[in-house]
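I would like you to help me understand the sequence and structure tokens below and explain how sequence relates to structure.
___
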Amino acid sequence: QVQLVESGGGSVQSGGSLRLSCLASGYTYRSYCMGWFRQFPGKEREGVAAVCYDGSTRAADSVKGRFTISQDNAKSTVYLQMNSLKPEDTAMYYCAATDASYNVRTYYNRLVSRAYKYWGPGTQVTVSS
């Protein structure tokens, strides 16, 4: 029922910026948390940043100070502002959403992929040196 669609990916030079957007639709109730994940070739999907119902955010150590997650509830959209991009940021980026119900485990493990029920198809980010 819930559908997520990412946009904003592309190719940029090292040090450049991109803003990813995730448009959510089909909710009966708002998702408890939403997050951004990325997957490198041959690797498991890893959490990048996430925001939960109370507006609190968390970011992976690898992107702290460079990436910022934000949300616009009126537009049912979550953003990932990516600055100071590095070649090692090159990956497929996915938007994800949890169920609407309160879950303390999810709240404190929001960068873990298994906490999320819904996923977008992904958008490619490529950073060249």
